[in-house]
Amino acid sequence: MLNLVLFGPPGSGKGTQSEKLIDKYKLVHLSTGDILRGEIAAQTPLGIEAKKKMEKGELVSDEIVIGMISNKLDNNTSAKGFIFDGFPRTTAQAQALDNLLTQKGTSITVMLSLDVEKQELVNRLLNRGKDSGRADDQDLSVIENRIAVYNRETAIVQDYYKAQGKLKDIQGVGSIDEIFDRLCRAIG
Ligand code: B4P
After folding, report:
1. Is the pLDDT of residue 133 over 90?
2. Among 51, 73, 130, 187, which residue has the least CB neighbours within 10 Å?
3. Where are the alpha helices (H) located in 8-117, listed in sequence order?
């Protein structure tokens, strides 16, 4: 199986590049952000809980997102592999993911970490906010908080995969196709 972790700060291109990677490698896409937005749209109890955190740019609890990923893995037993997009975002999530994959006799192949500087992230997210309808893309202070939360709580997850020899850094500025080529070369 080919199991990719697509990693990087908010606005670094995870969702954008996931779409292209799924097409090429025929993987199942697991985006915790998309799953959470689906729960919010359906007004489930989980969605109502998650909305409060997401509107402020904070992380939803590990327990909720780990449970969601576990369900999705159980529902896709014949997948050729997975793209984990926006997950794991904490070391506890990374450990839980390793445990879930080990139970299924597989593991993460590589973490692809997109590197983009802060002002470019802010510009991209404000730009997306003009037509995405996403409240968390429309408020500068929420965007800045998401980037701060990434630096404080999420960036360290790279060390977890580096220790396993699985981290690949990818320059995340350039055209979408250029970045896609870099990702494909890193996957090999
Ligand atoms: P996510 O849905 O994961 O969203 P994101 O990180 O903000 O965006 P992404 O990185 O996918 O966007 P992209 O660059 O593709 O998370 C939202 C929230 O959900 C989090 O803040 C958190 O509250 C919660 N959450 C999600 N997962 C969680 C977890 N595991 N644990 C706890 N909480 C969790 O796109 C950005 C824009 O850039 C687009 O408009 C795109 O067109 C543009 N763009 C992309 N590539 C470009 C390029 N090369 N050049 C120019 N523009 C580009």
Report:
1. no
2. 130
3. 14-25, 32-41, 45-56, 62-74, 91-103
The pTM of the full predicted model, rounded to 2 decimals, is 0.94
Task: Supply φ then ψ for residue 88, to 5 degrees.
Answer: -80, 150
Using CA atoms, how far apart are residues 114 and 176, in angstroms rounded to an integer? 12
Strands 2-7 and 110-115: parallel
Own/partner contacts of 116-119, CB < 8 Å, gap of 24 or more, are: 116/8, 116/9, 116/11, 116/12, 116/13, 116/172, 116/173, 117/173, 118/9, 118/147
Instruction: Give the residue whose CA is nearest to atom 16 of ligand 1.
Output: 33
pLDDT in tens, 34-86: 999 999 999 999 999 999 999 999 999 999 999 999 999 999 989 999 999 99
Pocket of ligand 1 (CB under 6 A): 10-16, 32-33, 36, 53-54, 57-60, 65, 86-87, 89, 93, 124, 127-128, 136, 146, 176, 179
Residue 168: strand, helix, or coil: strand
